[in-house]
Amino acid sequence: MSQSLRLGIAGLGTVGAGVVKIVRQKATLLEERAGRPVTISAVSARNRDKDRGVNLSSYAWEDDPVKLATRDDVDVFVELMGGSDGPAKAATEAALKAGKDVVTANKALLAHHGQALAELAEANDCVLRFEAGVAGGIPIIKSLTEGLAGNDVERVMGVMNGTCNYILTRMEDAGLSYEEAFKEADGLGYLEADPNLDVGGIDAGHKLSLLSAIAFGTQVNFDAVELEGIGCVSIEDIRQAADMGYRIKLLGVARMTGRGLEQSMTPCLVPASSPLGQLAGGTNMVVVEGDQVGQVVLRGAGAGEGPTASAVMGDVMDIARGLRMTTFGKPASKLVPAQPANSTPPAPYYLRLELSDKPGAMAKIASVLGDAGVSIHRMRQYDHAADTAPVLIVTHKTTRSSLTEALTGMAETGVVSGQPVALRIEEL
Ligand code: HSE
Prior knowledge:
Elements lengths: L4 E6 L3 H12 L1 H8 L3 E7 L15 E2 L3 H5 L6 E4 L6 H12 L3 E4 L2 H17 L4 E2 L10 H8 L5 E7 L2 H13 L3 H10 L7 H5 L2 H15 L9 E2 L7 H9 L2 E12 L2 E12 L11 E8 L3 E8 L3 H16 L28 E8 L4 H11 L4 E6 L6 E8 L4 H12 L4 E10 L3
């Protein structure tokens, strides 16, 4: 019998417990598929006494994840603690320096330290993989690094935070306000300990920055992701976008342009009939466009015990089979610094404004848009009782700077109340 691949697992939350269950319950299947047994030598977590619904008595226990990571009987350090720094980083570095392969679900760690860790892995002839870090159970990292390796990737986009998609879906389906939908998601245990990681777009931004690195061969640059959370999305926008044939999604988009790498994670309108528009609830979807393959759409559970543990095991099984992939699809030394695009390509925009209900108000808005070079594609004014009228405008493609000029001009007309809402429409 070939030598077993021995895991050391740090972090026994939902995902860690799920990995232990798979290794225990599917031992024969894993051995047949990998050609060698996959076993667990040792585990580590903050609380030794907690009941995790899985028998850990046959594994050595380490209080210190760094000790676990460097044990002689560990071949692969499985990091499931989370956090961009602290113990997760210390133990991952220790594992790589000790020549251990690492499998992690930690997108924050890689979004902030991905390049340095990939270099450290390669300097020590180790593998560092993170399939579970992006879009839970969807095998998007393998798809990009392996199945789509013959393509120049033109655009990667997707919905990569299930909590935000759940909140937006509930606002649309049940007519809940943002606050009500947030409370419901919280009650279901969907939100991260720091909810801003979810609703502020940070978690999804981490994931997008990792996909960009693979798709475009660039060093991870999370700081260059344009981030905006979903707190600004109102029920009015959800309803009125739907009325115009769109849905609002927290959408990540990455593309390489002549001006540099564009990465954004912002609320956008997508056509309601498109695959992204049809995505409801806590599910994730990643869309890749390659020059040879065209459009590929992957959809699946973005979180939860089974889906995330499934992704961890995908990486473990690659290592068990002897597949030694680089972290970001090419050697770390070949990844180039990403020159951030400091402007976005022209796009259509959705505008919602409250317009004074008096003669000439609409003419002033049309004139401000015209002066800024922004062309109106569609426009609707809704029935109203008050002395302001809700007006929706969908523009033709325009640049962000022309739009900003138009919004500034609108504020100066004296016929617009409050701040107009402006959301990009992503064409699919
Ligand atoms: N909090 C994330 C989500 C899952 O809601 O999709 C972990 O990244």
